[in-house]
Write a structure and sequence with these properties.
11% strand; 236 residues; single chain; 59% helix; 5 strands; alpha/beta
Length: 236
């Protein structure tokens, strides 16, 4: 099984693209969804955030107030780094576990939705291909303001905290331009799906895995037979 990375900028339409992959029975592991899971009350990251950032970023119920925390970290890069250091290990651990389950189910490839793929660089060495979702800058700003209710200044701050879309596009294998209608985006994604499904990369990976398993089994058998041979009699 090989892994395809899906990334882009905030409010460019990654969720739309991910939904199309799911329609074609391709698993999508969403880092944002897992990020919400790892900060649930009582989880390890929840305790660390409470200790590092205080109770001000939590509701009375104990759940994390993501809006307050977001306002805090997007105004301070050092605080952002601290939060990433707390949450990212748990997020990647959960994502790897989900990927392993997909491997055992026999999927030839999966998609990992990673908003900060290039910013962190943690998963780059594990990805076979990278897809970047882009759109026009003014449309991205408009979508973010409408979706989240941000002021223009606040929306620009959120967008500016990420790597530019042009730079991400240069570093990717596929670009989905999501400034048009849904049918146009769908056509682009389907073309990418067809290319990925034609790839034989997963068979090469399975072949290499088979060789490794065969060598391991043969080595184990050799050691077992060697240790079971009777010792020669001692000469008196």
């Amino acid at each position: 099984m090989f892994i395809v990375g899906l990334t882009g900028g905030i409010a460019t339409g990654k969720s739309t693209v991910a939904a199309i992959f799911r329609e074609y029975n391709i698993p999508v592991i969403d880092a944002d969804q897992i990020a919400r899971k790892v900060v649930e009350p009582g989880k390890r990251a929840w305790h660390k955030i409470r200790k590092e950032f205080g109770t001000e970023v939590f509701y009375e119920s104990g759940h994390l107030d993501r809006t307050k925390l977001g306002d805090l970290i997007f105004n301070d890069i050092e605080l952002r780094k601290k939060l990433n250091a707390i949450t990212h290990p748990d997020i990647y651990r959960e994502m790897c576990w989900e990927a392993l389950k997909c491997l055992f189910r026999g999927y030839p490839f999966i998609v990992m939705d990673l908003p900060l793929l290039f910013e962190t660089g943690h998963m780059l060495n594990y990805l076979h291909k990278i897809i970047v979702v882009t759109c026009e800058e003014d449309l991205q700003l408009q979508r973010l303001m409408e979706r989240s209710g941000f002021t223009e200044a606040k929306a620009k701050l959120r967008i500016g905290a990420q790597m530019s879309l042009d730079k991400k596009a240069e570093m990717s294998n596929f670009v989905v331009e999501n400034s048009g209608g849904e049918s146009d985006t769908r056509e682009q994604v389907i073309r990418i799906i067809n290319v990925l499904r034609c790839s034989k990369h997963h068979w090469r990976l399975r072949f290499l895995a088979g060789i490794c398993c065969s060598v391991l089994i043969a080595g184990t058998y050799w050691l077992k037979t060697k240790s079971s041979k009777p010792l020669p009699p001692l000469s008196l």
